[in-house]
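for the writeup, i need someone to sanity check this before i put it in the appendix. the sequnce is what the collaborator sent (i think, or maybe the updated version? ugh). structure was predicted straight from it, no edits. if anything looks off just tell me and ill rerun, i have time this weekend
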Amino acid sequence: MTKIRTCLFPAAGYGTRFLPATKAMPKEMMPIVNKPLIEYGVEEAYRAGMTDMAFVTGRGKRALEDHFDVSYELEHQIKGTSKERYLDATRHLIDACTFTYTRQVEMRGLGHAILTGEVLVGREPFAVVLADDFCVNIGGDGVLAQMVALFQEHQCSIVAIEEVPADQTHRYGIVAGDEIAPGVLRLSAMVEKPQPADAPSNLAIIGRYILTPDIFDILRSTPPGAGGEVQITDALMQQAKAGRVLGFKFAGQRFDCGSPAGYVSAINYCFAHFDY
């Protein structure tokens, strides 16, 4: 079986929906109660068996690197106190994983961000997590762990999908295909941010992917699409034409923490269901 070791985190965006909070703070560092979104994403990848965490960042994102590093002054100040335990989970990730970084100099879309990460990933299958899509599955495997199990069976690219209201299709990549197993579709159509009248379904891609390395070669020749950006859905459609992309209706709940309403819902949900 092919082991997926690397998870790529595209994190170069400006987070404009949360201005002014994100003027000097990466949106990925916004906390769900007391832990930043990016740490939840890294935890999900680690629990799915990945130990190489690769980040595509941009200007003003230094806090991401600092978070996954030792803070000697802080740790000295709290050493031996009751507060020391608050860093246990973060330190475990730092010790167990490697963290690498590269910069996306131009904001040219998610497809371009993933292509920028090729230097960190190499020629092997890898996962992609968009940290502001916050996913939880109480009592079960995380979304990435579920997708890894499916990848081991099918050895092809996989995207996490969920139903969205028909009037919101213009916010997502929308897919359609034939169900080959409960909750698993072999995709035949993908459209980036279609208007409701043009959408092939109401099944939307959310921020969890497993991609085979040939996606990099496809992205290199993918022209700008919706919004003038290089869209990962356009590249995936090339794989889908050969029947090599699955859509997966995951178990769990997803919160769009790129929007204020979704962010507040995630905080309320976690505060109600977890101990802090």
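The chain has one domain: 6-273. The radius of gyration is 18 Å.
thx in advance!!
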